[in-house]
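Summary for the steering committee. One of the milestones for this cycle was to obtain a three-dimensional model of the protein with flavin-adenine dinucleotide bound, which we needed before selecting residues for the alanine scan. The sequence and ligand used are listed below.
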Amino acid sequence: MNTFIHYHTLDLRLHDSPSLHVAHQPNNPSTHFLPLYIFDPRQLDLSHLPNAPKSPSPHSLKSATHQDPSARYDPKQSRCSPLSRVGGFHSTSPYRLKFLLEAVFSLRESYRASGADMVFAYGLPEVILPKIVESLKTDGGKVEGIYAQREYTLEEISNYRRINNALNNEKVQFNDSKTLISPDHLPFNPESQTPDVYTEFRKKVEGLGIGLNEMLIKPLDTSEVKDGQVKYNGRIKPFPKIDVDKINLKDGQGGFISSDETIDSVYSKLVKPLFDNPPVGGWSSSSSDSRDTLPDLHSKSAIPFKGTELAALERADDYIGIPPEGKAGWKGGMKAKHYKETRNGLLGEGFSTKFSTWLSLGVLSPKVVGWRVGELLDAQGRDKEVWKNAYWILFELLWRDYFQYTLNPNSSLFNPDGFSSQISTYPQDLRPNPSEWHQANLEDPNDKARRWCEGRTGVPFIDANMRELVETGWMSNRGRQNVASFLTKDLYCDWRIGAEFFEMHLIDYDTCSNWGNWQYQAGVGNDPRSSRQFNPIKQANDYDVDNGFVRTWVTELEGVGDEYVQTPWLINDKSKLKNYPSKPIVELPSWKKHYPNQPSTRNRGKAKGNGKGPKGGKKGAE
Ligand code: FAD
């Protein structure tokens, strides 16, 4: 028996899987294939599982928050706790946990449907993996190799380093399945030469000299969907003989999740610590009702999907459409054909792709999305409107790649002054001064940052977005830009509180995209601009034209007429506000010209549906 181990991290899928591809090449000497997932106590509180591994305690939580706001993140010491550094938030919400478990458990189902199986372990990966290798080697067995997806973030890199240190002969080998453009296709060295500005990065990548479609790589053909089930596309190598019950883990080193334990059972154990110690703003009302079984989706969720690979592939079919078979033409894809016109929407599932959740867990391959969009563009010939719209999906996927590639081993992703500290040409007058920022005291109900977290700022457009985040685990890109600008530019709070709060709640949380975008909005990231400050009243006028979004989430304002629902502090009869704040937490002079009955608001209702254009990009004060 010679086993090929695939250690799944953020690549929870069968399709476009380099490991499945390599393991099944005719010259690959492996005889067996073992997929593995490890629940890590650095990321999740596992204390309710038997022989629970302890989550190391959070380091310098208080000092980073209250005593020394500029405390720097030590890149040598990766985070060792599932609580965040500045705000002490959990690393996940019940909803985020639900999506993770749906992804992991459905992956095991897919392996089983393909004639294989999968091992679920919990504990420190550097303890678990060597034990598995040792067990596979008893009775003369061999391990052909341990394969995993290359990651770009420090915690993940440190994880692999610790595993390699703990292994005797084997080393983890990497594949590049995370990004649309693999690092070896980039026209520069991503470790040292990624441009400081996105546009430069995009132009270099698109200018690979071969045109847009050639920039895209055909995904690997490693899966098929049959009878409503994702399966390996061929005959998978057998699952090795391994008796995990015989693997000897010491006290507090964790264990294995039994092969018949249900998703609900695992959820109920992992969710308990979250309910024992809820954060400011609490948890979604729909998840609070259900602690022993996976929560139902929130009825108003803009992302009414499961975290499974099947759901991801079906969404790609629905959104981008299905390539022709035989004589039939392109099927569907109407949503992608209007993407750029609708992408700044706020309500419903259709306005943007909603691929982010699956992309962040690697349930959906970015190369599959890119390739399919390329096929759609090809099929549309010269239809400029379709190109203008659907191409923009690639433009956004390149943003995702860009944020991955801006990281390097000394990255300042988590430091208060962000990437700005690494960019020598960063304008001196824009350099942030973290000691001037408001440091949150989350125990104080009137604290500015706490009111932001709880959706109680008194600015309905901001509060609606924050409530959507807590209730559903999701917020539109338009909303994210607005609430981030509000926290950092209007309330002048430390941006890291916002990034951590997002990390806890966003079901599509991705370290690079989240922290990179937060830096960008806070003015400490790539491409510095002092003007990147959103005016929430103008934004509400432009993007929540019929007030439907604010009315969905700020239900206290039902008695307030349409004219004032975005600026309720202007009405005389404050009793109509019920419990909603009668004054906004802050009121900026620049808002006033967008109040009702001002010259600039007379056109309200005729406003644009899109924000960023190919030339203007996503930038500037809006
Ligand atoms: P679409 O508009 O359909 O875009 C298609 C894909 O392109 C997305 O799925 C995503 O993978 C990528 N993409 C789009 N915009 C961006 C962007 N600005 N940066 C990076 N990738 C992008 N995205 C995350 O995936 N995870 C995060 O944790 C995250 N945190 C964010 C925090 C802030 C403060 C801001 C302003 C943005 C953040 N984004 C994050 C980026 C963006 O808001 C989401 O990717 C997008 O809203 C997801 O919805 P969608 O899949 O429908 O996107």
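Key point for the committee: The CA atoms of residues 173 and 591 lie 54 Å apart.
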